[in-house]
Amino acid sequence: MKKLLNQPSDVVREMLEGIALQAPNVVILGDENVLVRRDIPEPQSRPVALISGGGSGHEPAHGGYVGAGMLSAVVCGEVFTSPPTDAVLAAIRATAGPKGALLIVKNYTGDRLNFGLAAELARAQGIPVEVVIVADDVALRAHAEKHQRRGIAGTVLIHKIAGAAAARGASLDVVAATARDAAANLGTMGVALDGCTLPGMAQSSFTLNDDEIELGLGIHGEKGVERSAPLPADELTEALLVNVLEDLAIQRGERVVLLVNGLGATPQMELDIVLRAAYTSLRRREVRVERAWAGTLLSALNMPGCSISLMRVDDSRLALLDAATEAHAWPGKGCINPTIRLDVASGAIHEECVAKTLDASRAAWAARAKAALDAVAQALVQNEARLTELDALAGDGDLGASMHRAADAASALPVEVLGTAPQALAALGASLRRAIAGSSGPFYATALLRASRVLADTPEPTAQEWAQAWRGAIEAISELGGAKAGDRTMIDALAPAVEAFEEALRNGQAVQQAFSAAVAAAGHGAQATAHMHPRVGRASYLGKRAIGSPDGGAVAVAYWLAALGPFVGK
């Protein structure tokens, strides 16, 4: 497994040095793997010290939560390993004043033992210390009592609440009671899409097949409580959420905060989708979501997956969550946007493109055009995987999805906008412009718009007039993107196709035969791009490395031209 590391034994110390370099309010405590606030007051005026930690590999926890308004110190063990007792004791001594210290501990045996022993040693030295255990993992509810459950991502919310209470000057008893009460109203459940890999290890802690996910995992690479088939995001979110809601017995009308936490290798895009699904589900249940966050707050190295946390709140607890903090990894207030959509007139199809009524001849032409577009759409959808594969070899792999959206847009066009050739081309261009992102949308929209203009006064073009429009479309693409024949683009399928079409027509062949020649030429042209050196577009960045596979855009042209074949000349 490739990692950006030096020696595996040095990762924690080097990580802490990197964190401290980015956080002027944080320093490393001597030779201990402990981060403390730089701005801690003199002992007699110190508030209750907030100390947490555990094994490393959960970044930005725990170092990201050191700062005024959250933690006074964190104690970092080796990766997925509890820190030693003496390091915890050193953190207590460095940060606690007469008001004492609160230790916030995730419910794992090693953490409870080492933090618990450090608390006893500190008490023996006259330092008041309380310990709060967080055990928010509801996945184990069928197998373990609440005090036996693991502590996972919801712990970050306890850091924030307790830190804000301490910053207000509350006593140790009050801060501890506030944290315990919050932890009692907190539940979390996670899902892994695969395992994670420890530094120095060649393999992950466990592996999942493409048709498996792990529900109810821990944050140290432990397997979950149930393995199932992958689910769409909405269904998976519901499965996690139901467990949390049932465990906390949250009822209609209650107020909660929502945290969607990434486990280290989950894109923010996917976390936001899960948050959307969870928020929608809670609203449907008439549960009031007061705050919501989606991000990687407590990870499991490079594990793909997420967890969902809910916490009951009232005005007092919300105020603690909203209080200011200097901890750089806290994601902010998490305020809910009540209106996320601004409704505007879409203007999906310009009025001039729409015929008010279609006479018999126009209706017949439109019906043929509609059937042709449906065939094109079907061909693009059927070949989505191949187009994705080709595009991934030279770009970002989005061509298949783009062509699928193009297919959906083409199929959705109402027959009323297809009454004449220029109207049909303009309407299709406008629809594709909105449906396709990236470069494909502008290219196809420009080409169709130019072709529509060429045929502006020709409701039902002849074959030669179609060829002129085809030429105009190619010129528009070339002008827009700077490509020409031989540059390994869609033009390398379009240009030989129109040339073959025109030549066949000049030789007296029927339109259907001429178009068959065009389809064959497009296919040959697309395959020939496999041996071309790319000179424009994203593939040009690869240079010779792109040679060997045909251009996806050219292959897409060959697919949709072939789909049009049965409808040409009839």
List the helices and strands and how they pair.
Elements: H1 11-22, E1 26-28, E2 34-37, E3 49-56, E4 73-79, H2 85-95, E5 101-106, H3 109-124, E6 129-134, H4 155-167, H5 172-184, E7 186-192, E8 213-215, E9 226-228, H6 233-248, E10 255-262, H7 268-284, E11 288-295, E12 305-312, H8 315-322, H9 360-382, H10 384-394, H11 399-412, H12 421-435, H13 440-454, H14 463-481, H15 491-506, H16 511-528, H17 552-564
Helix pairs in contact: 2-3, 4-5, 6-7, 9-11, 9-17, 10-11, 10-17, 11-12, 12-13, 13-14, 14-15, 15-16, 15-17, 16-17
Largest sheet: number of strands, sense, barrel closure: 6 strands, mixed
**Could you tell me how far the N terminus lies from the C terminus, measured between alpha carbons in angstroms?**
59 Å
Beta-strand residue percentage: 5-15%
Q: Could you state the order of secondary-structure elements as H and E? A: HEEEEHEHEHHEEEHEHEEHHHHHHHHHH
* Number of DSSP strand runs: 12
What is the CATH C level class of the largest domain, in words? Alpha Beta
**Sheet with the most strands: spatial strand order:** 1-2-4-3-5-6
In the CATH hierarchy, the third-tier topology of the largest domain is known as Rossmann fold
Percentage of residues in helical conformation: 40-55%
Number of helical runs? 17
Mean pLDDT: 91
State Rg: 31 Å
Overall structural domain count: 2
Determine the structural class based on helices, strands and strand pairing: alpha/beta
Poorly predicted segments: 346-356
Name the overall outline. Answer: elongated
Q: Which CATH architecture of the largest domain would you pick? A: 3-Layer(aba) Sandwich
